[in-house]
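Suppose a colleague, Dr. K., hands you the sequence of a protein chain of 177 amino acids and asks what its three-dimensional shape might be. Before reaching for any lab equipment, you can write down a predicted structure in token form. Begin with the sequence itself:
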Amino acid sequence: MKFDLNHLEQDLLTIESELASSETYSNPARLKELMQKKKSLEHPVNLYRNYRNTYQNFEEAKRILNEEKDADMLALAKEELAIAQESIPQLEEELKIALLPKDPNDEKNILLEVRAGAGGDEAALFARELFNSYMLFAKEEGYGVEMLEESEGGVGGLKEVIVKITGFGAYSRFKYE
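The predicted structure, expressed as tokens, is then:
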């Protein structure tokens, strides 16, 4: 079975058209569903559009090399051909990854819990450093952070901390931590 990326692009256009309708905003559940579908389609469709344009440039550069006599045009076509030959395999790989099935939990919020292990003050200091790193990352990525519980350890460390991290894709960014 061949996967049609044009169909994916058409789905995104249909969703965008429906989102432009004022009737959609009177149904919050439908609005949320459409926004989530749109968000999940935007990245692969943008990659596909970029791939398609790069491939068209590649074909056009090949045509110019075969038909053109002007030295400047030939040099420009060679340059364009080299750029496209380098970009096409990279875009294909990115597109393959973008089209992989998503984990249904990827868009959910998370609870992050950091606890100091065995090791006394040193473990508590490490827990503080680890927690600070996670918070810096979460804030740089634009996620909301809400402190739920915190237990200080000795010498500025942490015995335990629990935070809620909210935002689209929080689970997908933190699920392997």
